[in-house]
TrEMBL record, chain A:
Name this polypeptide is given: GRTP1 protein
Keyword annotations of the record: GTPase activation
Pfam families per the UniProt record, alphabetical: RabGAP-TBC
Signal peptide, first to last residue: none
Gene Ontology molecular-function annotations: GTPase activator activity; small GTPase binding
Top-level taxon: Eukaryota
Iron keyword on record: no
Domain Rab-GAP TBC: 8-198
InterPro entries for the chain: Rab-GAP-TBC_dom (IPR000195), Rab-GAP_TBC_sf (IPR035969), Rab_GAP_TBC_domain (IPR050302)
Biological source species: Nyctibius bracteatus (Rufous potoo)
TrEMBL record, chain B:
Keyword GTP-binding: yes
Superkingdom of this protein's organism: Eukaryota
One Pfam family of this chain: Ras
Membrane topology qualifier: Lipid-anchor
Protein's recorded name: Ras-related protein Rab
Length: 276, 212
């Protein structure tokens, strides 16, 4: 199954496979009617307001997300985010979730399935990226920094020399899971693996982008230059040819065991916590 | 032609404020001279550069930091704020809650960042979307002038990224104050800065920045 998924799930089967491998299907079946009860329940005004502010700012270039579209994906998006914010009160709504839920809706064309897939991602697959403290996000940014130190030391050294914090250049990669950063088809291929293999894939993608463009990044001579390079490396043929890109992410960064990542997560988490 | 005694300044400016007030739109208008109603929500932080010919001898390079408005991203703002020389705090004139948040943003900024001489960084308040005709607070300018003095803003402007109103003016006001604060290190030894509650008479902005 792993090999089949790494080769890319055909689009017409994507929704079904994501639902099954992530456990979302089981949860949905065991909690029949739960999603609709969330939508009918009492609402937190502040949460609703924040979600509304982002409605016209989620895929504004996609006509299906316009207010006037039929079927109105924007309305589905609103429902999914409001329901999720009331389901997972600790997280509520975090910007970035709007883009993720939007992709889920485009693929599943179902509010309820999107809700349960979002729950699989935020509740199980990803560490704590979206809660108010964003501890998992800060930790994983540091973990990436450590991995770059091990695997692409020259780039790590450049970042340190110019005082560029990893969060400045990669926070969107983690929060948006590469949406609007890499081409759509590439993002979906990455998500195929994300749902099946877990959050490790994010590091593989990030490391591949950095390693493949090492020479290019090292041309940077100052702070804004570095930030600009990190925007550039997410474009071009490396990422548009998603099949060869997917092969590269499993080959290029070398071995990356879950044990290594867990250990790094532990030490980086302590470091983040001690910085307050 | 390279002028011999041309001075160059590089300033990092922050653009902060609640979500959806138009921070990205203001920066795009200022840097790229265009506007789109279709900007997407900013995640994390974004940068833009603007070069100003300040006067015959001075070039000013502005590094504009567009910081996501959602509160939880504020957890990371200490990193983003580092070494900034000035700030714009933006609110949306059509949404009163975004104005109420202005003092919170200002306090957050001042608590995380001070100039080398111990003073708060010069900050200009932008009342954005003034083209919308739904002014929730502009009953008169005097109140806003008062608000700015009380809260330590060096000036305020009604702006519209859409109609290109007052953005260049606001930026010039901010840069002018940054240059003034840079060339005035002596102030840091003036006695009244240790009594910040008395500063309203002294920490006055140039009145030219206030709208009359």
């Amino acid at each position: 199954v792993k090999r089949y998924i790494r080769k890319g799930i055909p689009n017409e089967h994507r929704a079904v496979i994501w639902m099954i491998v992530s456990g979302a299907q089981t949860n949905m079946e065991q909690n029949s009617g739960y999603y609709h009860r969330l939508l009918e329940g009492e609402k937190n005004d502040k949460l609703v307001e924040a979600i509304k502010t982002d409605m016209n700012r989620t895929f504004p270039d996609n006509v299906k997300f316009r207010k006037t579209a039929d079927p109105c994906l924007q309305h589905m998006l609103y429902n999914v985010l409001v329901a999720y914010g009331h389901h997972n009160k600790e997280v509520g709504y975090c910007q970035g979730m709007n883009f993720i839920a939007g992709y889920l809706i485009l693929i599943t064309k179902s509010e309820e399935e999107s809700f349960w897939l979002l729950d699989a991602l935020i509740g199980r697959i990803l560490p704590d990226y979206y809660s108010p403290a964003m501890l998992g996000l800060k930790t994983d940014q540091e973990v990436l920094g450590e991995l770059v130190k091990m695997k692409v030391p020259a780039v790590a050294e450049l970042m340190e020399r110019h005082g560029v914090m990893w969060t400045l250049v990669v926070s969107r990669w983690f929060i948006c899971l590469f949406i609007d950063i890499l081409p759509v088809e590439t993002v979906l291929r990455i998500w195929d693996c994300l749902f099946y293999e877990g959050s490790k894939i994010i590091f593989r993608v990030a490391l591949t982008l950095i390693k493949q463009h090492q020479a290019f990044i090292l041309e940077a001579t100052n702070f804004p230059d570095i930030c600009d390079k990190f925007k550039q490396i997410t474009k071009g043929t490396l990422v548009t040819e998603c099949h060869s890109f997917m092969q590269k992410i499993f080959r290029d960064p070398g071995s990356l065991s879950m044990a290594t990542i867990n250990k790094l997560r532990e030490t980086c988490r302590d470091k983040v916590l001690s910085q307050g | 032609m390279q002028k011999h005694n041309q001075k160059e300044h590089l300033y990092k400016l922050l653009v902060i404020g609640d979500l959806g007030v138009g921070k990205t739109s203001i920066i795009k208008r200022y840097v790229h001279q265009n506007f789109s109603p279709h900007y997407r929500a900013t995640i994390g932080v974004d940068f833009a550069l603007k070069v100003l010919s300040w006067d015959a001898e001075t070039v000013v390079r502005l590094q504009l930091w567009d910081i996501a408005g959602q509160e939880r991203f504020g957890n990371m703002t200490r990193v983003y704020y580092r070494e900034a020389m000035g700030a714009f705090i933006v609110f949306d004139v059509t949404r009163p809650a975004t104005f109420e948040a202005v003092t919170k943003w200002k306090e957050d900024l001042d608590s995380k960042l001070v100039l080398p001489n111990g003073k708060p960084v010069p900050t200009v308040l932008l009342a954005n979307k003034c083209d919308q005709g739904i002014d929730v607070l502009m009953n008169n300018g005097i109140k806003m002038d008062q608000f700015c003095k009380e809260n330590g803003f060096v000036g305020w402007f009604e702006t519209s990224a859409k109609e290109d109103i007052n953005i260049n003016e606001a930026s010039r006001c901010l840069v002018k104050h940054i240059i003034a604060s840079e060339s005035d290190p002596v102030q840091s030894i003036e006695p009244d800065i240790i009594k910040p509650h008395l500063n309203s008479s002294k920490a006055v902005s140039c009145s030219a920045c206030f709208k009359s």
